[in-house]
Write a structure and sequence with these properties.
The chain is an alpha/beta fold and 258 residues long. It contains ten helices and six strands; from the N terminus they run αααβββααααβαβαβα. A four-stranded parallel sheet has the order 4-1-5-6. A two-stranded antiparallel ribbon has the order 2-3. α2 packs across α8 and α5 packs across α10. It starts with 5 loop residues before the first helix and ends in a 9-residue tail after the last helix.
Amino acid sequence: MSVLPKLFADALLRAHPSWRSVLEQGLHAMMATDSAYLPTLAADAFLPTGGRIFAAFVQPLDAVRYVLVGEGPYPREQSATGVCFMDGAVDSLWSPAGLSKPVNRATSLRNFMKMLMVAEGLLMPEATGGEAVAAVAHRALSAESTFIQTLPDLQHNLHAHGFLLLNAALVFRPDVPPLKEARAWRPLLEVVLAALANRAGQPAPMLVLWGKIAGWLDGLPAFTHLPRVVAEHPYNLSFINNKGMQSLFGPMHLLRAA
């Protein structure tokens, strides 16, 4: 069995202990498929930095009820956290004018937030613009508010509902096409999904697949045993009124503080 580059062996220590042997098996599967990929990556610069490549796996294996699969890390160092859709440049969600400026700059997050507001009946599907969102923000920022206030709050709520927030490609490099990067990580994702599908005494988790790359993974053998919902990537405006996403996320009340 090939020796893993130290960078990745060290990064495994940041994952929850329940995942470490699974991820190690997945990395070896990657090495068996392409022996040069991980050593080359270890010698290159990539996002996320700080050894956070497996940051999504802080969610214990047995706690996973949903696997949300996005495309890849944000292409900015501050934003790339190693957790799908969690932009490290965003803290506060609200402002008196509506959503905070960092949320509005993060198009996918903005549309996700609006989808949640529609799903909870806070916005009408045909009225998701500035004035309507500002009215919700006024409630969210009030003294008696029961709304979450920060992106870490949202991540906490997603974790509490059993989400593994995973990207199809665990790294971003500006000189490597995202689809090529995602293809290299397919063997690891196959091992991860097989481990989730084969948990004794637990139901299979639901896959929540966003965007073209996540949907492309639908052909993996392990995916055939798992229920799934597929949607356009949230950077599309149509995501706000995606009925499937509203039905899935609405009952979770993710905008409400625990």
